[in-house]
Protein backbone atom coordinates (compact mmCIF):
# COMPACT_ATOMS: atom_id res chain seq x y z
CA UNK A 1 0.00 0.00 0.00
CA UNK A 2 2.84 2.38 0.80
CA UNK A 3 4.14 2.03 -2.76
CA UNK A 4 0.71 2.84 -4.23
CA UNK A 5 0.31 5.85 -1.98
CA UNK A 6 3.71 7.08 -3.16
CA UNK A 7 2.62 6.58 -6.80
CA UNK A 8 -0.58 8.53 -6.24
CA UNK A 9 1.60 11.29 -4.92
CA UNK A 10 3.73 11.26 -8.12
CA UNK A 11 0.76 11.94 -10.41
CA UNK A 12 -0.34 15.51 -11.09
CA UNK A 13 -3.90 14.49 -11.90
CA UNK A 14 -4.68 13.35 -8.36
CA UNK A 15 -4.76 16.83 -6.79
CA UNK A 16 -5.56 20.47 -7.52
CA UNK A 17 -2.46 22.68 -7.52
CA UNK A 18 -2.78 26.27 -6.29
CA UNK A 19 0.97 26.82 -6.13
CA UNK A 20 3.81 25.66 -8.35
CA UNK A 21 5.91 22.88 -6.79
CA UNK A 22 9.63 23.69 -7.15
CA UNK A 23 10.48 20.51 -9.05
CA UNK A 24 8.48 21.80 -12.06
CA UNK A 25 10.09 25.24 -12.28
CA UNK A 26 12.50 25.63 -15.20
CA UNK A 27 15.66 27.72 -14.92
CA UNK A 28 15.17 31.22 -16.37
CA UNK A 29 16.99 30.40 -19.64
CA UNK A 30 14.78 27.35 -20.34
CA UNK A 31 11.33 28.86 -19.93
CA UNK A 32 8.77 28.98 -22.76
CA UNK A 33 8.72 32.81 -23.24
CA UNK A 34 5.04 32.62 -24.12
CA UNK A 35 4.91 36.31 -25.08
CA UNK A 36 7.15 35.56 -28.10
CA UNK A 37 4.96 32.79 -29.56
CA UNK A 38 3.34 33.58 -32.93
CA UNK A 39 -0.34 32.97 -32.22
CA UNK A 40 -1.90 33.57 -35.64
CA UNK A 41 0.36 31.54 -37.94
CA UNK A 42 -1.20 28.97 -40.27
CA UNK A 43 0.12 25.48 -40.49
CA UNK A 44 -0.83 23.69 -43.71
CA UNK A 45 -4.24 21.98 -43.90
CA UNK A 46 -4.70 19.09 -46.35
CA UNK A 47 -8.16 17.89 -47.40
CA UNK A 48 -7.75 14.13 -47.86
CA UNK A 49 -11.13 13.84 -49.58
CA UNK A 50 -10.09 16.07 -52.49
CA UNK A 51 -10.72 14.27 -55.82
CA UNK A 52 -7.45 15.73 -57.15
CA UNK A 53 -4.97 13.10 -55.98
CA UNK A 54 -1.96 14.92 -57.45
CA UNK A 55 -2.89 18.06 -55.51
CA UNK A 56 -3.16 16.09 -52.25
CA UNK A 57 0.26 14.48 -52.81
CA UNK A 58 1.79 17.84 -53.68
CA UNK A 59 0.25 19.54 -50.61
CA UNK A 60 1.54 16.76 -48.32
CA UNK A 61 5.03 17.05 -49.82
CA UNK A 62 5.09 20.83 -49.44
CA UNK A 63 3.98 20.58 -45.80
CA UNK A 64 6.62 17.95 -45.00
CA UNK A 65 9.31 20.14 -46.55
CA UNK A 66 8.34 23.50 -45.07
CA UNK A 67 6.78 22.70 -41.69
CA UNK A 68 7.21 19.01 -40.88
CA UNK A 69 3.64 19.35 -39.56
CA UNK A 70 0.22 19.59 -41.16
CA UNK A 71 -3.45 19.14 -40.28
CA UNK A 72 -5.69 16.75 -42.18
CA UNK A 73 -9.44 17.16 -42.63
CA UNK A 74 -11.89 14.66 -44.16
CA UNK A 75 -9.54 11.93 -42.96
CA UNK A 76 -12.24 9.27 -42.70
CA UNK A 77 -12.27 8.80 -38.92
CA UNK A 78 -15.77 9.38 -37.63
CA UNK A 79 -16.36 12.53 -35.57
CA UNK A 80 -18.43 10.60 -33.01
CA UNK A 81 -15.53 8.18 -32.44
CA UNK A 82 -13.10 11.07 -31.99
CA UNK A 83 -15.42 12.69 -29.43
CA UNK A 84 -15.70 9.36 -27.57
CA UNK A 85 -11.91 8.96 -27.46
CA UNK A 86 -11.52 12.36 -25.80
CA UNK A 87 -14.37 11.71 -23.40
CA UNK A 88 -13.16 8.28 -22.27
CA UNK A 89 -9.63 9.71 -21.85
CA UNK A 90 -10.99 12.42 -19.54
CA UNK A 91 -13.00 9.82 -17.62
CA UNK A 92 -9.83 7.80 -17.10
CA UNK A 93 -7.90 10.73 -15.64
CA UNK A 94 -10.84 11.55 -13.35
CA UNK A 95 -10.76 8.09 -11.76
CA UNK A 96 -9.92 7.92 -8.04
CA UNK A 97 -6.21 8.21 -7.29
CA UNK A 98 -5.94 4.67 -5.89
CA UNK A 99 -7.48 3.24 -9.07
CA UNK A 100 -4.95 5.03 -11.31
CA UNK A 101 -2.02 4.17 -9.04
CA UNK A 102 -2.40 0.47 -9.98
CA UNK A 103 -1.14 1.33 -13.48
CA UNK A 104 1.68 3.67 -12.42
CA UNK A 105 5.26 2.93 -13.52
CA UNK A 106 8.34 5.03 -14.24
CA UNK A 107 9.97 2.27 -16.32
CA UNK A 108 10.15 3.47 -19.98
CA UNK A 109 10.42 -0.13 -21.21
CA UNK A 110 6.98 -1.06 -19.89
CA UNK A 111 4.45 -1.47 -22.70
CA UNK A 112 1.43 -0.26 -20.75
CA UNK A 113 1.82 2.26 -17.96
CA UNK A 114 0.52 5.41 -16.41
CA UNK A 115 3.29 7.86 -15.70
CA UNK A 116 4.14 11.51 -15.37
CA UNK A 117 6.53 14.03 -16.95
CA UNK A 118 8.85 12.29 -19.50
CA UNK A 119 11.49 10.20 -17.78
CA UNK A 120 11.24 10.82 -14.04
CA UNK A 121 14.22 8.56 -13.32
CA UNK A 122 16.62 10.84 -15.19
CA UNK A 123 15.22 14.38 -15.13
CA UNK A 124 16.13 17.15 -12.75
CA UNK A 125 13.05 19.26 -13.62
CA UNK A 126 9.67 17.62 -14.30
CA UNK A 127 7.06 18.40 -16.97
CA UNK A 128 3.47 19.32 -16.18
CA UNK A 129 1.69 16.28 -17.62
CA UNK A 130 0.45 12.81 -16.76
CA UNK A 131 0.09 10.28 -19.53
CA UNK A 132 -1.19 6.81 -20.19
CA UNK A 133 1.13 4.91 -22.52
CA UNK A 134 -0.45 2.05 -24.48
CA UNK A 135 1.02 -0.35 -27.00
CA UNK A 136 -1.58 -0.96 -29.70
CA UNK A 137 -0.30 -3.48 -32.25
CA UNK A 138 -1.13 -6.30 -32.51
CA UNK A 139 -4.23 -5.16 -30.62
CA UNK A 140 -5.33 -8.55 -29.29
CA UNK A 141 -1.93 -8.97 -27.66
CA UNK A 142 -2.12 -5.73 -25.64
CA UNK A 143 -5.80 -4.91 -25.05
CA UNK A 144 -6.23 -7.42 -22.18
CA UNK A 145 -3.75 -5.36 -20.12
CA UNK A 146 -5.33 -1.98 -20.90
CA UNK A 147 -7.44 -0.27 -18.22
CA UNK A 148 -10.79 -2.00 -17.55
CA UNK A 149 -12.11 1.20 -16.08
CA UNK A 150 -13.87 3.18 -17.58
CA UNK A 151 -15.75 0.10 -18.90
CA UNK A 152 -15.94 1.41 -22.49
CA UNK A 153 -12.21 2.30 -22.62
CA UNK A 154 -10.91 -0.82 -24.39
CA UNK A 155 -13.56 -0.84 -27.10
CA UNK A 156 -13.40 2.88 -27.92
CA UNK A 157 -9.61 3.19 -27.88
CA UNK A 158 -9.16 -0.13 -29.70
CA UNK A 159 -11.43 0.99 -32.55
CA UNK A 160 -9.60 4.32 -32.78
CA UNK A 161 -6.17 2.60 -32.87
CA UNK A 162 -7.24 0.45 -35.83
CA UNK A 163 -8.53 3.45 -37.78
CA UNK A 164 -5.49 5.59 -37.03
CA UNK A 165 -3.19 2.84 -38.28
CA UNK A 166 -5.04 2.74 -41.60
CA UNK A 167 -4.88 6.52 -41.87
CA UNK A 168 -1.13 6.39 -41.22
CA UNK A 169 -0.65 3.92 -44.07
CA UNK A 170 -2.66 6.15 -46.44
CA UNK A 171 -0.43 9.07 -45.47
CA UNK A 172 2.72 6.98 -46.06
CA UNK A 173 1.53 6.41 -49.59
CA UNK A 174 1.12 10.14 -50.26
CA UNK A 175 4.46 10.90 -48.59
CA UNK A 176 6.25 8.24 -50.67
CA UNK A 177 4.71 9.51 -53.91
CA UNK A 178 5.56 13.12 -53.03
CA UNK A 179 9.24 12.10 -52.91
CA UNK A 180 8.99 10.41 -56.31
CA UNK A 181 9.10 6.93 -54.74
CA UNK A 182 6.70 4.01 -55.27
CA UNK A 183 3.49 4.45 -53.25
CA UNK A 184 4.30 1.42 -51.07
CA UNK A 185 7.90 2.43 -50.33
CA UNK A 186 7.57 3.80 -46.78
CA UNK A 187 5.25 1.12 -45.53
CA UNK A 188 7.39 -1.70 -46.92
CA UNK A 189 10.70 -0.21 -45.80
CA UNK A 190 9.51 0.36 -42.25
CA UNK A 191 8.57 -3.33 -41.86
CA UNK A 192 5.86 -4.76 -39.59
CA UNK A 193 5.25 -1.61 -37.62
CA UNK A 194 4.70 -1.22 -33.96
CA UNK A 195 2.10 1.26 -32.85
CA UNK A 196 1.71 2.97 -29.54
CA UNK A 197 -0.23 5.80 -28.07
CA UNK A 198 0.07 8.41 -25.35
CA UNK A 199 -3.12 9.75 -23.82
CA UNK A 200 -1.79 13.03 -22.42
CA UNK A 201 -3.40 14.97 -19.60
CA UNK A 202 -2.17 18.47 -18.79
CA UNK A 203 -3.89 19.74 -15.61
CA UNK A 204 -4.50 23.42 -14.93
CA UNK A 205 -1.18 24.95 -13.97
CA UNK A 206 -0.80 27.88 -11.55
CA UNK A 207 2.21 29.37 -13.44
CA UNK A 208 2.36 28.17 -17.07
CA UNK A 209 5.23 30.52 -17.94
CA UNK A 210 7.59 28.60 -15.61
CA UNK A 211 7.20 25.09 -16.99
CA UNK A 212 6.28 22.84 -19.95
CA UNK A 213 3.79 20.10 -20.60
CA UNK A 214 6.61 18.71 -22.73
CA UNK A 215 9.73 20.67 -23.66
CA UNK A 216 11.02 20.95 -27.22
CA UNK A 217 11.66 17.56 -28.82
CA UNK A 218 11.45 15.70 -32.09
CA UNK A 219 9.64 12.36 -32.37
CA UNK A 220 11.90 9.30 -32.71
CA UNK A 221 9.30 7.26 -34.62
CA UNK A 222 8.19 7.49 -38.26
CA UNK A 223 4.81 9.26 -38.16
CA UNK A 224 2.73 10.81 -35.38
CA UNK A 225 -1.02 11.41 -35.61
CA UNK A 226 -2.25 13.77 -32.91
CA UNK A 227 -5.80 14.25 -31.75
CA UNK A 228 -5.87 17.68 -30.11
CA UNK A 229 -8.27 19.17 -27.65
CA UNK A 230 -10.28 21.43 -29.94
CA UNK A 231 -11.11 23.82 -27.08
CA UNK A 232 -7.64 24.44 -25.65
CA UNK A 233 -4.48 25.07 -27.70
CA UNK A 234 -1.09 23.98 -26.35
CA UNK A 235 0.98 22.49 -29.19
CA UNK A 236 3.71 24.75 -30.59
CA UNK A 237 6.06 24.09 -33.50
CA UNK A 238 9.42 25.67 -34.32
CA UNK A 239 9.29 27.22 -37.78
CA UNK A 240 11.96 29.56 -39.19
CA UNK A 241 13.39 30.10 -35.73
CA UNK A 242 10.05 31.12 -34.18
CA UNK A 243 7.63 29.14 -32.03
CA UNK A 244 4.21 29.08 -33.66
CA UNK A 245 0.99 27.97 -31.99
CA UNK A 246 -0.95 25.20 -33.71
CA UNK A 247 -4.56 26.29 -33.39
CA UNK A 248 -6.90 23.30 -33.43
CA UNK A 249 -9.32 23.06 -36.36
CA UNK A 250 -12.61 21.31 -35.60
CA UNK A 251 -12.46 17.72 -36.85
CA UNK A 252 -8.82 17.91 -37.93
CA UNK A 253 -5.98 15.63 -36.91
CA UNK A 254 -2.43 16.95 -36.68
CA UNK A 255 0.27 14.97 -38.50
CA UNK A 256 3.97 15.27 -37.90
CA UNK A 257 6.99 13.73 -39.53
CA UNK A 258 9.15 11.71 -37.13
CA UNK A 259 12.93 11.29 -37.25
CA UNK A 260 12.71 8.11 -39.35
CA UNK A 261 10.91 9.82 -42.24
CA UNK A 262 13.50 12.60 -42.17
CA UNK A 263 16.19 9.91 -42.55
CA UNK A 264 14.33 7.97 -45.28
CA UNK A 265 13.77 11.21 -47.23
CA UNK A 266 17.53 11.92 -47.00
CA UNK A 267 16.81 15.09 -45.05
CA UNK A 268 14.31 16.51 -47.56
CA UNK A 269 11.45 16.23 -45.08
CA UNK A 270 11.81 17.55 -41.57
CA UNK A 271 11.17 16.12 -38.17
CA UNK A 272 10.83 19.45 -36.40
CA UNK A 273 11.08 20.58 -32.82
CA UNK A 274 7.72 20.89 -31.11
CA UNK A 275 6.58 21.35 -27.52
CA UNK A 276 3.48 21.42 -25.35
CA UNK A 277 2.70 24.36 -23.09
CA UNK A 278 0.13 24.43 -20.31
CA UNK A 279 -2.75 26.58 -19.28
CA UNK A 280 -3.71 28.34 -16.06
CA UNK A 281 -7.48 28.21 -16.41
CA UNK A 282 -8.22 24.92 -18.17
CA UNK A 283 -7.03 21.35 -18.24
CA UNK A 284 -6.09 20.01 -21.67
CA UNK A 285 -5.98 16.56 -23.25
CA UNK A 286 -4.38 15.16 -26.36
CA UNK A 287 -4.02 11.68 -27.82
CA UNK A 288 -0.83 11.02 -29.77
CA UNK A 289 -0.59 7.89 -31.93
CA UNK A 290 2.85 6.79 -33.04
CA UNK A 291 3.72 4.51 -35.96
CA UNK A 292 7.16 3.02 -35.37
CA UNK A 293 9.42 0.98 -37.65
CA UNK A 294 9.99 -2.68 -36.92
CA UNK A 295 12.93 -2.80 -34.45
CA UNK A 296 15.19 -4.96 -36.61
CA UNK A 297 14.62 -3.32 -40.00
CA UNK A 298 17.53 -1.40 -41.53
CA UNK A 299 16.77 2.28 -42.05
CA UNK A 300 18.53 5.05 -43.95
CA UNK A 301 18.03 7.30 -46.97
CA UNK A 302 16.07 5.78 -49.88
CA UNK A 303 18.58 4.76 -52.56
CA UNK A 304 16.59 6.59 -55.23
CA UNK A 305 17.12 9.86 -53.31
CA UNK A 306 20.90 9.50 -53.14
CA UNK A 307 22.69 11.12 -56.08
CA UNK A 308 26.04 12.79 -56.75
CA UNK A 309 24.36 16.11 -56.02
CA UNK A 310 22.64 14.90 -52.85
CA UNK A 311 24.79 12.21 -51.19
CA UNK A 312 23.47 10.22 -48.22
CA UNK A 313 23.07 12.49 -45.19
CA UNK A 314 22.63 9.60 -42.74
CA UNK A 315 24.22 6.20 -42.30
CA UNK A 316 22.12 3.04 -42.12
CA UNK A 317 21.03 1.77 -38.70
CA UNK A 318 18.27 -0.27 -37.06
CA UNK A 319 15.35 1.32 -35.24
CA UNK A 320 16.36 -0.58 -32.12
CA UNK A 321 19.74 1.18 -32.17
CA UNK A 322 18.06 4.55 -32.72
CA UNK A 323 15.46 4.17 -30.02
CA UNK A 324 18.00 3.17 -27.37
CA UNK A 325 20.06 6.27 -28.18
CA UNK A 326 16.93 8.46 -28.04
CA UNK A 327 15.91 7.24 -24.59
CA UNK A 328 19.42 7.48 -23.16
CA UNK A 329 19.52 11.27 -23.72
CA UNK A 330 17.52 14.15 -22.35
CA UNK A 331 14.48 15.06 -24.41
CA UNK A 332 15.73 18.51 -25.38
CA UNK A 333 19.33 17.68 -26.30
CA UNK A 334 20.47 18.04 -29.93
CA UNK A 335 18.39 16.31 -32.61
CA UNK A 336 19.06 12.57 -32.15
CA UNK A 337 19.49 12.15 -35.94
CA UNK A 338 22.70 14.21 -35.66
CA UNK A 339 24.30 11.13 -34.10
CA UNK A 340 23.62 9.16 -37.29
CA UNK A 341 25.05 11.56 -39.88
CA UNK A 342 27.44 10.10 -42.43
From TrEMBL:
Keywords: Dioxygenase, Iron, Metal-binding, Oxidoreductase. Residues 193-293 form the Fe2OG dioxygenase domain. One of its GO terms (biological process) is defense response to oomycetes. Its cofactor is L-ascorbate. The keyword Heme does not apply. Pfam families: 2OG-FeII_Oxy (PF03171), DIOX_N (PF14226). It comes from the Eukaryota. The keyword Zinc does not apply. SUPFAM superfamilies: Clavaminate synthase-like. GO terms for molecular function: dioxygenase activity; metal ion binding. InterPro entries: DIOX_N, IPNS-like_FE2OG_OXY, IPNS-like_sf, Oxoglu/Fe-dep_dioxygenase_dom, Plant_2OG-oxidoreductases. Belongs to the iron/ascorbate-dependent oxidoreductase family. This is Fe2OG dioxygenase domain-containing protein. It comes from Oryza meridionalis.
Amino acid sequence: MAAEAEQEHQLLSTAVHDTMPGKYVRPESQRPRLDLVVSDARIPVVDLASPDRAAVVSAVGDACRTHGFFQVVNHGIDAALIASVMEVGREFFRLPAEEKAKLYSDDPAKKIRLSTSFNVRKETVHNWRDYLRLHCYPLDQFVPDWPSNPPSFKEIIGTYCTEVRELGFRLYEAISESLGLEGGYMRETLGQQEQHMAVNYYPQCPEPELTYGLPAHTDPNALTILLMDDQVAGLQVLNDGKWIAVNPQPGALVINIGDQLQALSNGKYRSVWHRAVVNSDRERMSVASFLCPCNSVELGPAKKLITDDSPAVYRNYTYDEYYKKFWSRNLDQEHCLELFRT
